[in-house]
Amino acid sequence: MTASGIVLDLFAGPGGWSQGLSALGIRDVGIEIDPFACATRSAAGHTTIRADVAAYPTKPLSGKVSGLIGSPPCQTFSAAGLRAGNDDMDLCHQGLDDIARRNDSRAHLRAACADPRSLLVTEPLRYALALRPDWIALEEVPAVAPLFAHIAGILHSLGYSAWHGILNAADYGVPQTRRRAFLLASRTRTATPPEPTHAKDPGPDTLFGPALAPWVTMADALGWGATDRPTPTVTAGGGKSGGPEPFPSRARKTLMDAQQRGTWVLRHSNRSNATLRRADEPAATLHFAHAGNYVAWHQEGSAGTESVRITVPEAAALQTFPTGYPFHGTKTRQFEQIGNAVPPLLAAAVLRPLVPAALEVAA
Q1: In a shared domain, residues 124 and 230
Q2: With 60 as the cut, is the pLDDT of residue 227 above it?
Q3: CA-CA distance, 259 to 282, in Å (whole number)?
Q4: Whether residue 181 has pLDDT greater than 50
Q5: In sequence order, what are the residues at sequence separation of 6 or more whose Cβ sits closer than 8 angstroms to the Cβ of residue 291?
Q6: Does some domain include residue 204?
Q7: What is the pLDDT at residue 340?
Q8: Which of 7, 20, 226, 273 is the most exposed, fewest CB within 10 Å of its CB?
């Protein structure tokens, strides 16, 4: 929390925003319904209320919240999902207008939605209007940008400074070209996007200052050489419920033979047109929405080499969670938590110029 009140984190997940805040010396209180994410948060030391954000009452929080964070579930709007949110967009806009008019039409609109989860994107505005926090930070997939523009307009009419736009996580030191829509608002300062710290092509230093740092690569983040992935220990057994990492048949000989050949690439799904990124590049956006779509390492240029699934620690590192972060649940649930979370390094970059207490810590 800040000196003036609680920082409330809606749809808090495993703690991406929480870790970003902790880097600034601030703690939050998260509301999260998923039991595995709640267990992860608890093990990581983040305060959590296990509840449905849409059903949780705002009245007991009145006058106690100084900052509001929200990352509504993105499945209905995500390019990796069925995109039912596109069909529900008009209903979501109506929901925002109704909330601004203090008309609770959520039950009616939810019933009309192709996917009732689409309407969850309106919940942060309901909390914002009820609690009037000093500052607000929202994050979602790019498809939600028109709804964030709508929310920004409503907040502006209430005296908030608001900015909305798309940020690329790689521009802030995350080893992943993850693009997300953000809405930042404040009642006490001008809301602006964070200044990038990294660039794909930084260029030379100039008279106005040093060049930005280059994008962080997967090899950098995982402590590898530019092209060499350490040969993992091959063990029998394991699977989705935990235990040793499963490897495909013939993997022991294949991995050992391939160690000195070719370049490791990350394959981002099991589809034929999957995105491939070399280890000396940032990853593409990590998606773990379906158990069958684990991204996998593959030896490029080595005929016959079998793919090796990415591990939970590798995925967590590419999302900038600290080493040993205590993800709970089955392996599938752990991957889902990682893929759905805000990268903590990006969260810290976004919040640093927005949160008053963060400026005091930085000073």
Answers
A1: no
A2: no
A3: 21
A4: yes
A5: 240, 332
A6: no
A7: 93
A8: 273
